[in-house]
Write a structure and sequence with these properties.
Structural class: alpha/beta
CATH architecture of the largest domain: 3-Layer(aba) Sandwich
Strand content: 15-25%
Bound molecules: pyridoxal-5'-phosphate
Mean pLDDT: 95
Number of helices: 14
Strand order of the largest sheet: 4-10-9-8-7-5-6
CATH superfamily of the largest domain: Type I PLP-dependent aspartate aminotransferase-like (Major domain)
Radius of gyration: 22 Å
Distance between the termini: 47 Å
Largest sheet: 7 strands, mixed
Low-confidence stretches: 1-11
Number of domains: 2
Length: 424
């Protein structure tokens, strides 16, 4: 089976993929994993918030600033050409990473949030009318809710929310029922950051397309865990962030089908997004530059390309298989802890263990775990509607990457037992 996210990666991990996979060796590439916290070795389990960076990414960014630093698309001088080549070369690498058809379908953004806002403010502003509908799911991150609320308010359109089950799975039947001739766009998360649920985006896209409705996929939590093929998914837009993919902060990608991006107006105005300017009229640049106003985050793009190269060297099938095994191990450990309830028990899950405990607030769990050197996130995870759906104010969340190990999971379980002792 080809382990594309959305195709039951958690259920059918590719065992052969694990041959030769060495997390202990991989860990040596990540300087931040060597730090100690409160005198204990760091156990970093907050990868859904942001990932650590391999030395290859740090080196690429330093090399750029020390040997190649210049602005892009502007200078005829040597360094500017080097920087331009690095910048445009990175676009090709991203295109291959997502298996997009064309480089000009790859727009560099500040991150997932920025990419979604771009589509809401450009596509949404152009096409939404009063009474139209945008569909999101009940497990969205705030960054795939608020931009749609803003544009729907402005256009007097309605936001529709697909419900989820008690396991945190999407109600596909309800989704299908909600698609109507008023639906103008579906915006859905691929992998939920709060629950770990892998949504059946391929089916969702096919159902929407049967009614001529385009689909934006929030890929913030998926690209780092398994292969993503935007042509196979047939999504219309796909957004992700570099910092969740072992790359720098402040850089991200919006993939969009060329014919949709062509028809959309620019989101922001400024340098580089124009082909000619007079005080009477401006002619916009071609794709993708039309959507990249101003000096871009060149060092971020260079770092992102290095991160993608690093991930590809490890292999995304290997990563998916390894993390599926780690998730199964962690789920078993945590499920055996008295008073612990996992929030998000979907059949298709990526490496997120979100949980609450009887009599201990999530923030207290997070604090005690931190004293043991175990870094997890505690809070609403920018998904307040998910917390409301499950009737909890917050959860503690451990989220894995390919550099985590079974020993990290053991440390997590041990630290939770410590929290139970403290609050007994
Ligand atoms: N979508 C999901 C599912 C996320 O988990 C996140 C970040 O946690 C985002 C969107 C927003 O990403 P960023 O803050 O990098 O723009």
């Amino acid at each position: 089976m080809k382990p594309v996210v959305g195709q039951r990666i958690a259920e059918e991990p590719c065992q052969e993929c694990l041959v030769g996979f060495g997390p202990e060796k991989i860990r040596q590439d990540f300087p931040a994993l060597r730090v100690t916290v409160h005198g204990k070795p760091l156990v970093y389990l907050d990868n859904a918030a942001t990932t650590q960076k391999p030395q290859a990414v740090l080196d690429a960014v330093v090399r750029y600033y020390t040997q190649e630093n210049s602005n892009v698309h502007r200078g005829v001088h040597f360094l500017s050409q080097v920087a331009t080549q690095a910048y445009d070369g990175a676009r090709t690498r991203v295109r291959r990473f997502l298996n997009a058809a064309h480089d000009h379908e790859i727009v560099f953004t500040r991150g997932t949030t920025d990419g979604i806002n771009l589509v809401a403010q450009s596509y949404g502003r152009k096409y939404l009318r009063a009474g139209d509908e945008v569909i999101v799911t009940a497990m969205e991150h705030h960054s795939n809710i608020v931009p749609w609320q803003m544009i729907c308010d402005e256009k007097r359109a309605n936001l529709k929310v697909v419900p989820i089950t008690d396991a945190g799975e999407l109600r596909l039947d309800e989704y299908e029922r909600m698609l109507s001739d008023r639906t103008r766009l579906v915006a859905a998360v691929h992998v939920s950051n709060a629950l770990g649920t892998v949504n059946p985006v391929r089916e969702m896209i096919a159902l929407a397309h049967a009614r001529g409705v385009p689909v934006l996929v929030d890929g913030a939590q998926s690209v780092s865990h398994a292969p993503v093929d935007v042509q196979a998914l047939d999504c219309d837009f796909y957004a992700f962030s570099g910092h969740k993919l072992f790359g720098p902060t402040g850089i991200g990608v919006l993939y969009g089908k060329a014919e949709l991006l062509e028809a959309m107006p620019p989101y922001q105005g400024g340098g580089d997004m124009i082909s000619a300017v007079t005080f009477e009229k401006t002619l916009y640049n071609t794709l993708p530059y039309k959507f990249e106003a101003g000096t871009p985050h060149i060092a971020g793009v260079v770092g992102l390309a290095a991160a993608i190269e690093y991930v590809e060297r490890i292999g995304r099938k290997q990563i998916a298989a390894y993390e599926a095994d780690l998730l199964a191990y962690g789920t078993e450990l945590l499920s055996a802890i008295p008073g612990l309830r996992l929030i998000g028990t979907a059949k298709d899950k990526a490496g997120v263990l979100s949980f609450v405990m009887d009599g201990i607030h999530a923030h207290d769990i997070g604090t005690i775990l931190d004293m043991e050197g175990v870094a997890v996130r505690a809070g609403h995870h920018c998904a307040m509607p998910v917390m409301k759906r499950f009737g909890v104010p917050a959860t503690a969340r451990a989220s894995v990457a390919f550099y985590n190990t079974r020993a990290d999971m053991d440390a997590l379980a041990k630290a939770i037992h410590k929290a139970i002792e403290v609050f007994a």
